[in-house]
Amino acid sequence: MYKDKILNLLRSARSRFLSGEELARKTGISRTMVWKHIKSLERDGFEIEAVPSQGYRITSIPDILRERDVKQGLKTKTMGRELVLLPKVDSTNILAMELASKGSPEGTVVTAETQSGGKGRLGRTWISPKGNLYLSVILRPMIPVHKAPLITMMGAIAVASAIRMVCQVAAVIKWPNDILISGKKVSGLLTEMSAEQDRIRHIVLGIGVNVNMELEALPPEVRVLSTSLAAEAGGRINRTLLLQELIRSLERWYQVFLANPPEVLREWQKLNMTVGSRIRVTGAGDTLEGLAQGIDDDGRLIIRLNDGSIRFVSAGDVSILKRARGN
Ligand code: BTN
To answer: Model-level pTM?
Structure first.
C-alpha cells in the first residue's frame, strides 16, 4: 500500500525529483521505509534515479499491464470493468472458466504477461513469451449453443479492427479465427464454453496477439508462418493502448452481435480473406480441397470441392492455395 502510494507520487511528478523527506511526509512513513520501497520498486523493474540533494524520479517504467493504466479513459460499460491482470498463469482461458463458474460478471477480462500452458485450437499449445497480449473475456450471451461460433467471429472482427486502429496495418481474418498481416499469423482466438442442453452458462473468448515478442522465441516451423505487430508496424507497440482499444472494440462488436447477428457476418465477410480463395482444409477429419464459397448463418465454411459437391466445415486449418482476386 505504501509502495503504491510512493509509485503514484513519483508517477504524478513525472520528470521532477521528489525528495525522500517529501515522500516520507506525504505517505506518513520514515525516510528509511521510503528507501526500502524504492528498492522494492526497482526490483519490480522500475528504473529510479536517486540524486543526493534532490531525491528520486522514475526514468523508466517496466512494460507490464497495470489496472490503473488500462482503466484510465477506458469508458466501457461492461467489458473490462473487472480486470484480473496477472504476471503469469497456466492459461488465461482456464482461469477465466474457473472465475466464470464462480460467478464473475460478464465482461471480466483476465490477462497474463506470460502463460505456462497457453492453449491453442485443436488441442495445440499456444507458446506465450513475454511482450505479447494474452487475454480471456467472460461472456454470458442468451443464445442457442449452435450460435456460439459467431462469438469467435465477433471476437475476430474486434481484434482485427483494434489492430487496424492502433497499428495502422491491414489485418485480415482467415477462417475460422486467425488474424493475419501480409499472409502471416499475428493473432489467434480460442472460444471455450460451459453449456447444458441448449443453454449456454458462459463463454470464454481467449485471444492471443503477438505484439512485441522476439519471433525467435517460436519454433522454426511456427515462426515461418507467424509475425508480430512490432515487426509489421516497424516499432514497439504500446500494449496498454492496444488492450484498451481491444476492450472497446469487443464491447462495440458484442453489442452489435446481441442486437443484430447478421451484421457480424457481414462485417466478418468484409474483413476475411478466405472466401473466394482456393483452399485446403486439414486437421478435422478428411483433407478437403476446393473453393471457399462463403459462410453460413452459423459461421460454418462452405466449400465447393473439385468434384462440384458442397461441404460445410465447422473446424479445421485452412491453407490458402490461391488467393481470391482483390484480396
Ligand atoms: C489458436 O490456436 O489460434 C488460438 C490461440 C488462442 C491463444 C489464447 S492466449 C489467451 C488465451 N489463453 C489460452 O490459453 N489460449 C488463449
So the answer is: 0.87
pLDDT tens figures, 89-119: 999 999 999 999 999 999 999 999 999 999 9
- Edge to edge, the sheet with strand 83-89 lists 83-89, 109-115, 133-139, 199-209, 184-196, 178-181, 172-174
Distance CA 322, CA 279 (A): 7
CA of 130 to the centre of ligand 1 (A): 14
Q: Which residues form the pocket of ligand 1, taking CB atoms under 6 Å from any ligand atom?
A: 91-93, 115, 118-121, 124, 126, 134-136, 178, 188-190, 206-208
Distance CA 82, CA 257 (A): 21
Report the separation in Å between the CA atom of 199 and the middle of ligand 1, taken as the mean of its atom positions.
24
Residue pair 207/187 in contact (Cβ under 8 Å)? The answer is yes
Which amino acid type is present at position 287?
A: T
As a whole number of angstroms, the distance between CA 114 and CA 91 comes to 9
Q: Among 84, 109, 134, 227, which is best to mutate for testing ligand 1, by the most ligand atoms less than 8 A from CB?
A: 134
Structure confidence by residue, pLDDT tens digits, 241-292: 999 999 999 999 999 999 999 999 999 999 999 999 999 999 777 899 999 9
